Structure to design on (1030 residues):
């Protein structure tokens, strides 16, 4: 057994189920080692950003990380932006970076780069194998580090010559995984007292407070105390729809976000950091909860929010589950599409237990506003603001949750970032419906210009924000990558296409032409 | 005038002609400033890797850098791999990274990232504006640093609030640009003595020794002394074809490279570093010219190779230009395509003064082997090994050299990395013909497996190296991005398609189906 096989067998023993890769020469020992295990599914991406985005989506739905194989520094660089998103999502991801042979590194060959310099910008842990005998323990350490605390990116640099060296066939058990910090009893008591006071209160939720047992507990507290549930703008995972307690998403624009939070006398933090504005807009706040009373932070984004929710729910005597939202889709007249009507069609047709990846930029918000009226489903949002992750997140979600339909509500601007992901969706026969909101612009930039009084700008502004010339033919692009598709411009056509896409196995793309 | 306009006006005064961008909110002051200048052409890329690759192509053909606008750390991350290629090519590039407002940075908003940590991996200089009054001097410094020595990437981080601040309308002249080091007279004399000795000698060339005046001087020395001309595998720019002295490209595989260099009693370095192998293959050399005699390095990749060539040519009494290769394209029978026949068709039809971007991985080598028999043209190769740059390099080349045809000889594996570049080619009506060598595999990995005795590998290896399922329909993808195309499988069909593509203005894609 060589060191490469030791790395892969350690991952197999840790029940890691998938490896996303775009390998090169230095990673071939790891690829050949994958040939010798059964339980790790190898999935090829046409660009490393697909691999790291897919690993983010996969890890958000599992307690375990996916592996990602990356080709030296440039391969890591290509995957870096979605590792940034994974870092912000606190997703467990193990990035294995093949590196030049130890004896070749000083030669400064073309691909040589400061791998750790790039890796540290996104990794909670970064290691390098310097002896083949470390292969197993280092792989185990990387896996444990990716799951430590609330989770994150662990990067392990693996020189090619060491991967080829023989090592003893000795399993490397995972080291103890560091659990998140327990909640502070004083904060629990303070929060419970505020909630019992009866004034308008909000639980500001993030991380595992937004799905599964965490959301159930948050719903109980809401039911018992009348508190509203509000979540981070860029949540990692949210369960919503019929039967789940409704959660309001913090708006993107600062005056709307500030107004929402100012409407509550008390804000209790559970699993998120204190909310900050997405950008530092001139004259707008940076931190929404500064210089005010009634704010108690029970569990930050790093803390054990499930324990905090359990204790807070006991402290306020919350014993009954929230009855949840009803299934109440809006009626949809047949009409030309706009963002609101498009959202209504999706909310009406979304099947139970679907996973929605709402990574469209401007058009995800109308959907978010009414998603609680759909059948029960989960959503994975953009956490780190690095656009273009949606089609890759969808791949990871589909592989992590076979049998569940995935709907990627994507923009034409951000969708073009990672259009290669469609090929992997076709290759792996994944049940992903991509709805491209084709407004032929980076619309968010137009909105920003309006807000700053600079709209519409001059010729350079138009050249750098419009996607109208030429219009991207998304159906042709999808077909080129092996994904069937349809173009629609009305609610009835969208409903028909979405019905068809959801009924058939495998991926499908809908180009929804929007004004 | 605000600081953003000061930055842009400083670039305008330095005669920078193009700005590649995929801007976000933090860069909008720079975009609006571009509205107020006439001489900087704004070019939108659908992903930052397109922007940085295009800037690399542009800078290789000009003495001046292009600007690239990048959106905070994640935007820089997306462009990092092609900035690595630009670093290896020693291309002048000025990367302007929009950053959060100074008062917002500590809030750790979603897009916050260690920008300098990522930037330093590729930049020869990295700066950050901390006062608006520095805008002009820092922009001038960044431009000068990008052109200093042999050139490189200069990264300037520009916080959004400072960009909006008013500054005096005072031009910022460029600081003195540091020129490359002058050649060592002792090395010139030693090289001249070896060349006069009459034994088989090679000039090992890189950088500006491979085109223009540099290549003319190298050709004179070759003519006078009988020395062969050999170049780096990953050259930045090479002039070849009829009338130019033939230059042999150092092979990619180590045994071939070593054999070529071992055939020369003397090797004189001019404008390149000493050649090293691309990877550290087991049992193969890392450095090809170690432990041997007859090696004199006159000018490294950082030195003033044009001065070195001029002095060496005087020292050996070289007074006549090399007569150059004849136009001697191979005859091409009508037959199914393979790499050799494909190369022959291109060599026959390539128009005078074309720019070829031979970034196909396995199929660029048959072309390189016979390119000197084509009409006079230039080539831009992959310098840093970060694949997928070709379609973006082609954009930069077409904008830098209007009126010259650009031919991107691309692979399906590497081409899929940056397929979004086709849209910019269509939008800017660029005369680029993309020939995709569609062998439905990352063929280089198959060759590596054969070399290491591991071919063909098992199911994971096939899953991670084959592109056959589904086959990418390149013509459909191109059409989707607004580029017409054709699929060909024979030499006659390729010739017809290439003739048509070269005759018409604007971009065209040819999917060449290869075994």
């Amino acid at each position: 057994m060589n060191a490469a096989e030791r790395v892969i067998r350690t991952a197999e023993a840790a029940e890691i189920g998938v490896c996303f890769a775009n390998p090169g020469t230095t990673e071939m020992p790891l690829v050949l080692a994958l040939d010798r295990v059964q339980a790790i599914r190898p999935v090829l991406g046409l660009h490393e950003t697909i691999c790291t985005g897919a690993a983010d989506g996969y890890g958000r739905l599992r307690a375990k990380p996916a592996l990602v194989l990356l080709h030296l520094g440039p391969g890591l660089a290509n995957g870096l932006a979605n590792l940034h998103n994974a870092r912000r999502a606190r997703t467990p991801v193990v990035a294995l970076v093949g590196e030049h042979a130890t004896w070749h590194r000083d030669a400064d060959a073309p691909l040589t780069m400061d791998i750790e310099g790039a890796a540290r910008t996104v990794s909670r842990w970064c290691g390098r194998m310097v002896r083949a005998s470390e292969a197993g323990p280092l792989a185990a350490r990387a896996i444990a580090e990716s799951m430590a605390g609330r989770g994150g990116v662990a990067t392990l640099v693996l020189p090619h010559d060491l991967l080829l060296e023989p090592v003893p066939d000795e399993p490397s058990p995972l080291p103890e995984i560091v659990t998140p910090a327990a909640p502070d009893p004083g904060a629990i008591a303070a929060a419970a007292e505020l909630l019992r006071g009866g004034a308008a209160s909000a639980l500001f939720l993030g991380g595992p407070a937004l799905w599964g047992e965490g959301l159930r507990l948050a719903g109980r507290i809401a039911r018992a105390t009348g508190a509203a549930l509000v979540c981070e703008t860029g949540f990692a995972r949210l369960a919503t729809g019929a039967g789940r307690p409704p959660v309001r998403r913090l708006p993107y624009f600062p005056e709307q976000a500030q107004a929402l939070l100012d409407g509550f006398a008390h804000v209790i933090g559970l699993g998120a950091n204190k909310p900050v504005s997405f950008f530092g807009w001139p004259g707008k706040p940076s931190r929404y909860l500064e210089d005010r009373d009634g704010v108690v932070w029970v569990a930050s984004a790093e803390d054990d929010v499930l324990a905090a929710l359990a204790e807070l729910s006991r402290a306020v005597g919350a014993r009954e589950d929230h009855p949840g939202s009803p299934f109440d889709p809006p009626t949809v007249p047949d009409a030309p599409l706009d963002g609101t009507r498009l959202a209504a069609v999706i909310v009406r047709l979304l099947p139970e237990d679907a996973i929605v990846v709402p990574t469209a930029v401007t058009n995800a918000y109308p959907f978010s506003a009414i998603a609680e009226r759909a059948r029960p489903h989960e959503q994975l949002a953009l956490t780190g603001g690095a656009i273009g992750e949606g089609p890759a997140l969808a791949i990871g979600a589909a592989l992590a949750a076979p049998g569940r339909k995935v709907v990627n509500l994507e923009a034409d601007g951000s969708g073009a970032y990672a259009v290669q992901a469609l090929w992997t969706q076709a290759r792996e026969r994944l049940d992903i419906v991509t709805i491209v909101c084709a407004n032929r612009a980076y619309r968010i930039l137009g909105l920003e210009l309006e807000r700053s009084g600079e709209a519409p700008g001059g010729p350079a502004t138009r050249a750098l924000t419009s996607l109208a010339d030429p219009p991207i033919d998304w159906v042709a692009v999808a077909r080129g990558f092996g994904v069937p598709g349809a173009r629609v411009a009305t609610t009835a056509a969208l409903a028909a296409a979405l019905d068809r896409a959801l009924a058939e196995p495998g991926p499908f793309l809908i180009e929804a032409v929007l004004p």
